[in-house]
Design a protein that fits this description.
Helices cover about 40% and strands about 20% of the residues. The protein is α/β, with parallel strands linked by helices. The protein has 2 domains: about 1-245 and about 455-475, Aldehyde Dehydrogenase, Chain A, domain 1, CATH 3.40.605.10; about 250-435, 3-Layer(aba) Sandwich (Aldehyde Dehydrogenase, Chain A, domain 2), CATH 3.40.309. Strand 7 (about 170), helix 7 and strand 8 (about 200) form a beta-alpha-beta unit. The longest helix is centred in the N-terminal third of the chain and has 20 residues, at about 40-60. The protein is globular. It binds nicotinamide-adenine-dinucleotide.
Length: about 500
C-alpha cells in the first residue's frame, strides 16, 4: 500500500502506529494510507522550526519575496501534475482542481509584494525631538490546520503570508487528501525556502490537540467545520495563542423579481453543484422574491439541473465529480431523506445515482428541494453536497432577513438589476462576503476572506492585509536623541502632547 507521510526538516525515525485510508472517490477504493503523527513528532517539527526561524526572519523581505516568485513559477510548471493529484484524492474535476491551485497562487502573487506592505509607519517630531515609528515583526512559529475541500488554496492562503512575513510555518492538512500539501512544500523548498521554514505534519484530532497545547506555537489558523473551528478557537486561545478559525456556511442567493433569470440559473447551477457542492462559498439556498419569481425560476432550474453531467473527475465534459468519501456521501443522502421527512418538496432526487463502470464511486446526482422553511434542520444546517434548496420569500425585507438571521454568515449573493436594492442589501445584510450578481464572491487575494457569525471565530480574516496582521505583531518605538544638554526636571506626570 502506498504511504503518504509528513514533510519534515529532519529524518523521522519514529515508527508509525496509526494510519488513515485515502480513497479514490471515482472508484470507491483505498488508493493509499496516510501516516498519522503524534505529539512527539510535532515536538520535533517545532524544534526544527525554532532553529530555522530567526535566520529566516533576518533575511531581507525582498529576498523572502524572491522565494515566492520562484515558487509561483514552479507551481505553474507543475500545474497539471498537481491538479491530477488533487482531483484523484478530492474528486473535483481537473479544471476545478486547477482553479483551487490558481486561487492559492494568487495569494503567493500578493506575497511577492511583501516588502511593500511591511514598510511600517513613521512620525517625525511627534514631540520635541521625538520620533515615533512602528513596524511589524513575525510571531515565530505558526500552524495551519486545513479542510479537505481546498487542499491547495487554503494551505497557500496561510503558508504564503506566514512565510513571507518571516515566520516558520507547520501545516496540518486534511487527512482525506494529504498529497498536494506535501508536494507544495517540496516545491517551496526547491524555490529556495530554507529547511525547517515549512513542514507538513499529517494527523487527526490527536495532532490538532498537540498543536493547540504546544507552548512554542504562537498562532493557529484553522479552516473547517464550525463545531471544530469553535473548539480550536477556544482551546488555542486558552493556551495563549493567536487564533483565527473559519467554519461552515449556508450561503443564500436572493433573486429579485427584476433579475435576469437565465443568467441566475446559469450562475446557480455552477455555484450550487460545482465541486459537488463541497465549497464553503457554494450557493445551496436560493430565495426567489415573490410568487411569480419563484414559479419562473423553478421552471428554468429543473431542465438546467437535469442537464448537469456528473462524471469521473478526469472527464473534461463533467460538471462535477464524486464527493470525497463514503461517509460524506451517506451524510448528504441522509440530509435528503431528512428534507423529505420534514415536509419539503423533493423536486429532483439525486440519490441512487450510479455511473457505469464506477458503481462503487462516491457519486451523488443533483437534488432540488422546493418549499423549504426556516424551521427545517435541512435549512439550518450545512449539507455540503449537490443539493439546492428553494426558500420562498414574499418581499425584499423578508429575503434580507433569511441570511441575516441564519447561524452562518460566510457569503451571500443578490441577483437584481436595481442598483438601489443592491446598495441597500450590501449595507444591511449580516454576512461577511457579499456578491452583487456574483454567485461566489470569494474576494481576490489582495482583499481579504472571512465570514461572520458561526462562519468565523476570531477577528482577523485570511490573506490580504488582514493576513499580514494575523501573522505579525506591531512594535512601536518612541525615540529621542538628546543633544547632551540634560534637562533638570524629571517628569512625574504622564507625558502628553498637550
Ligand atoms: P473538518 O472540520 O472535518 O476538518 C478540518 C480540519 O480539522 C482537518 O484538518 C481535520 O483533520 C481536523 N479535525 C477534524 N475533526 C477534528 C476534531 N474532532 N478535533 C480536532 N481536529 C479535527 O472539515 P472538513 O470536512 O475537512 O471541511 C469541510 C468544512 O470546512 C465545511 O464545513 C466547510 O464549510 C468548511 N470550510 C470553511 C471555509 C471557510 O473559509 N469558512 C473554507 C473551506 C471549508
Amino acid at each position: 500500500m502506498r504511504e503518504i507521510t509528513h514533510k519534515l526538516a529532519f529524518e523521522n525515525a519514529q515508527a508509525t502506529t496509526r494510519f488513515s485510508d485515502v480513497f479514490d472517490p471515482n472508484n470507491g477504493t483505498v488508493q493509499a494510507r496516510v501516516t498519522l503523527g503524534d505529539k512527539a513528532l510535532l515536538d520535533a517539527a517545532v524544534q526544527a522550526a525554532k532553529q530555522a526561524q530567526p535566520a529566516w526572519a533576518a533575511v531581507n523581505p525582498q529576498r523572502r519575496a524572491r522565494v515566492m516568485f520562484n515558487f509561483k513559477a514552479l507551481v505553474e510548471q507543475h500545474m497539471d501534475e498537481l491538479a491530477h493529484m488533487l482531483s484523484s484524492e478530492h474528486g473535483k474535476v481537473i479544471a476545478d482542481a486547477k482553479g483551487d491551485i490558481q486561487r492559492g497562487l494568487e495569494v503567493i502573487e500578493f506575497c511577492c509584494g511583501i516588502p511593500h506592505v511591511l514598510k511600517g509607519e513613521f512620525t517625525q517630531g511627534a514631540g520635541p525631538g521625538i520620533d515615533v515609528y512602528s513596524f511589524r515583526q513575525p510571531l515565530g512559529i505558526g500552524v495551519g490546520i486545513t479542510p479537505f475541500n481546498f487542499p491547495a488554496m487554503i494551505p497557500l492562503w496561510m503558508s504564503g503570508v506566514a512565510i513571507a512575513t518571516g515566520n516558520a510555518f507547520i501545516l496540518k492538512p486534511s487527512e482525506r487528501d494529504p498529497s498536494v500539501p506535501v508536494r507544495l512544500a517540496e516545491l517551496f523548498q526547491e524555490a529556495g525556502l530554507p529547511e525547517g521554514i515549512l513542514q507538513v505534519v499529517q494527523g487527526d484530532k490527536e495532532m490538532v490537540d498537540a498543536i493547540l497545547d504546544h507552548p512554542d506555537i504562537a498562532a493557529v489558523s484553522f479552516v473547517g467545520s464550525s463545531d471544530i473551528a469553535h473548539y480550536v478557537y477556544k482551546r488555542g486561545v486558552d493556551a495563549g495563542k493567536r487564533v483565527q478559525a473559519m467554519g461552515g456556511a449556508k450561503n443564500h442567493g436572493i433573486v429579485m423579481p427584476d433579475a435576469d433569470l437565465d443568467q441566475v440559473v446559469s450562475d446557480l447551477a455552477g455555484a450550487a453543484f460545482g465541486s459537488a457542492g463541497e465549497r464553503c462559498m457554494a450557493l445551496p439556498v436560493v430565495v426567489p422574491v415573490g410568487e411569480k419569481t419563484a414559479i419562473a425560476l423553478r421552471e428554468k432550474l429543473i431542465p438546467a439541473i437535469h442537464a448537469l453531467r456528473v462524471g469521473v473527475s478526469t472527464d473534461s465534459e463533467a460538471h462535477y465529480g464524486p464527493v470525497v468519501n463514503a461517509a460524506h456521501k451517506a451524510k448528504v443522502e441522509s440530509y435528503i431523506q431528512m428534507g423529505v421527512d420534514e415536509g419539503a418538496e423533493l423536486v429532483i432526487d439525486g440519490r441512487g445515482f450510479m455511473l457505469q463502470g464506477h458503481e462503487q464511486g462516491f457519486f451523488i446526482g443533483p437534488s432540488l428541494f422546493d418549499r423549504v422553511t426556516t424551521k427545517m434542520r435541512t435549512y439550518q444546517e450545512e449539507i455540503f453536497g449537490p443539493v439546492l434548496q428553494i426558500v420562498r420569500a414574499e418581499t425584499f425585507e423578508e429575503a434580507l432577513e433569511l441570511p441575516s438571521q441564519h447561524q452562518y454568515g460566510n457569503g451571500v449573493a443578490l441577483f437584481t438589476r436595481n442598483g438601489h436594492a443592491a446598495r441597500e442589501f450590501a449595507a444591511r445584510v449580516n454576512v461577511g462576503m457579499v456578491g452583487i450578481n456574483v454567485p461566489i464572491p470569494v474576494p481576490v487575494a489582495y482583499h481579504t476572506f472571512g465570514g461572520w457569525k458561526r462562519s468565523a471565530f476570531g477577528d482577523t480574516n485570511q490573506h490580504g492585509m488582514e493576513g499580514v496582521k494575523f501573522w505579525t505583531k506591531v512594535k512601536t518605538v518612541t525615540q529621542r536623541w538628546p543633544d547632551g544638554g540634560a534637562s533638570a526636571d524629571s517628569a512625574f506626570v504622564i507625558p502628553t502632547m498637550g
